[in-house]
Write a structure and sequence with these properties.
Distance between the termini: 33 Å
Structural class: alpha+beta
Number of helices: 3
Helix content: 10-25%
Shape: globular
Radius of gyration: 17 Å
Oligomer: single chain
Largest sheet: 7 strands, antiparallel
Length: 202
């Protein structure tokens, strides 16, 4: 597990790469738009799974974006908003200059969902900050956490990005990338099976 988001949750799962996770529900994640992505972590066990993807053109240890999906069997039935609040409570240990948004609860396909964001000004021990977008879905078989991570220029305040003069185009591109990630989580990530009534499952 390499992503910054998974560091906050690593203690929640003991995973075996060879074990299988069987569930009546199915987490749907369409391919991320744009250039191809590759899976760099694929672990599952009786208590859930974790998958991490990065753009295929990037090295495993040198990426700018990461998409992570996790299933937590022990947390099935849990409130997605409460789950995000637990994540928020631990962010300070890995990050300086933290800003958060949400959790924002929703009902999608008859299931409880929560959205949230973490804006890390500077990751401790690194020369960059991190923005994380979360979608958490409460299923009957597990609680599903999907996060998109973007490395950004370091700052003392995660809510105030600073770009050198002349890099306005880079700043605009970052905002566009984040808007696309937000739409992806809302429109292209959902749960089918079980009690889901989501029309996208048809």
């Amino acid at each position: 597990m390499r992503g910054w988001a998974t560091l906050l949750l690593a203690a929640a799962l003991t995973l075996s790469a060879s074990a299988a996770f069987a569930a009546g529900e199915r987490l749907v994640m369409t391919p991320y738009p744009g250039a191809p992505w590759k899976r760099i972590t694929d672990k599952s066990g009786p208590q859930g799974w974790i998958h991490e993807q990065v753009p295929a053109a990037h090295a495993v240890d040198d990426y700018s974006e990461m998409l992570t999906d996790q299933a937590f069997v022990a947390n099935r039935g849990a409130d997605p908003s409460a789950f995000l609040k637990t994540i928020y409570a631990h962010v300070g240990g890995a990050c300086a200059g933290v800003g958060v948004s949400g959790p924002t609860p929703q009902l999608e396909g008859g299931l409880r969902v929560a959205y949230g964001q973490v804006r890390c000004g500077t990751e401790r021990g690194q020369a960059f900050g991190v923005h994380l977008f979360y979608k958490v879905i409460a299923g009957d078989d597990a609680l599903y956490s999907i996060s998109w991570e973007l490395r950004v220029p370091p700052s003392s305040n995660g809510d105030l990005l600073s770009f050198p003069k002349g890099q306005e185009a880079r700043a605009a591109a970052l905002l566009k990338t984040e808007a696309e990630a937000d739409r992806y989580l809302a429109d292209q990530v959902y749960l089918c099976g079980g009690r889901s009534t989501d029309e996208r499952c048809r």
